[in-house]
Amino acid sequence: INDIPVIAIDGPSASGKGTVAQRVAGKLGFHYLDSGALYRLVALSAMRSDADLADEHVLSDIAARLDVVFEDAEIWLESENVTDAIRAEACSNAASRIATYPRVRVALLERQRAFRQFPGLVADGRDMGSVVFPDAALKIFLTASAETRAQRRYKQLMEKGIDANISTLLQDLRERDARDSGRSVAPLQQGEGTSLLDTTSLDIGQAVDCILRQYAEI
Ligand code: CDP
Ligand code: CDP
Question: For ATP, which residues are the binding ones (predicted)?
């Protein structure tokens, strides 16, 4: 299985990981893993069953039992389409809190690795290059300034007809980044052998081209 190439794209919230990773996967004909969606699904499932978000055992149980289907751009939880529900801000924050629990992370590990299928995988998240696919062929740390990221998220929400406030978004994003980078297990950081791609002044197409170029060179 280790002959199957992985491109790992990690980075902070709204840096463009999902969009860029999906396009790179599309160009190469590779599979795509949105690992953040799994943490969001655990969060949604926990909130819906009124689980205690501080109970690591209950949460890791939920993570181990997740009944989820990824189908093109849609995500189904127990046969319900939750594609939009998991993007809600409450879910983002809960996801980032439960993602600090080692047992939850372990419970999701094999599920993520199962996405590694022929002819290849592009995976995005926080620990794709460091923990889940340490032997990835290419590791990218995708980032952009916090202001740029808040603006991108704002525009994205407005286009979906979801009301948002840019300064609240910026504050939420900073809080979540601090939690994701500061935690003791699988923190978000630019590890060794990972190339930095700052997209503050790059559009999606430029970021995609840059990754495809780097992949072609290895
Ligand atoms: O997955 P992640 O949270 O890192 O970000 P995303 O959802 O892929 O991207 C957030 C928003 O930024 C989307 O609406 C993208 O279209 C946009 N974006 C952009 O305007 N320029 C980029 N270079 C990358 C993303
Ligand atoms: O799209 P955005 O970058 O805002 O978030 P996401 O990638 O969907 O991830 C949601 C939350 O899940 C993050 O804030 C992390 O706390 C957690 N996460 C993680 O810990 N490890 C991953 N590989 C992916 C997400």
Answer: 11-19
Residue 92 CB–ligand 1 contact under 6 Å: no
Ligand 2 close to Cβ of residue 31 (< 6 A): no
Nearest ligand 2 atom to alpha carbon 99: 20
CB 121 within 8 A of CB 111: no
For residue range 97-134, what is the model confidence (pLDDT) as tens digits? 999 999 999 999 999 999 999 999 999 999 999 999 99
Residue 119 CB neighbour total at 10 angstroms: 10
List, for residues 162-199, the tens digit of each pLDDT value.
888 999 999 999 999 999 999 999 999 998 899 999 99
- 201 in a labelled binding site: no
Quick one: which atom of ligand 1 is closest to the CA of 159?
14
- Do the interacting molecules here have an ipTM over 0.85? yes
CA 57 to CA 79: how far, in whole Å? Answer: 25
CA nearest neighbour of 13 among 73, 95, 77, 85? 95
Binding site membership of 83 for ligand 1 (Cβ less than 6 Å): no
